[in-house]
Amino acid sequence: MKRVHEIKKMQNYAYDENDIKFERNSSIISLAALCMLSSMICGATGVAGGMVLGPLFLKLGMIP
């Protein structure tokens, strides 16, 4: 992950101001766990996934 960021910096990659930069492995794991938990809730209750994942992504600063 750090290697990818170093390569992007070397190539002058233009990050968008809203881009999420995963600088730690724990942030990737927590995002995956939140998505898995929300998908299990959606499957158990019959709620559409976008109704749960959309607000979750907005809360994390991502564009859904």
List keywords for this structure.
0% strand; mainly alpha; single chain; 64 residues
Report on the structure:
- The protein is mainly α and 64 residues long.
- It has one domain.
- Helix content is 64%, strand content 0%.
- The chain is built from 3 helices and no strands.
- Helix 2 packs antiparallel against helix 3 (49-59).
- It is elongated, with a radius of gyration of 15 Å.
- The model has no long low-confidence stretch (mean pLDDT 77).
Separation of termini?
Answer: 22 Å
Number of domains: 1
What shape does the CA trace take?
elongated
How large, in whole angstroms, is the Cα Rg? Answer: 15 Å
Report the biggest beta sheet as strand number plus sense, adding barrel if it closes.
none
Strand-pairing-aware structural class: mainly alpha
Number of E-state strands: 0
Percent of residues in helices: 55-70%
Strand content: under 5%
Average predicted confidence as pLDDT: 77
Pick out the low-confidence regions.
Answer: none
Q: How large is the count of helical segments?
A: 3
Order of helices and strands: HHH
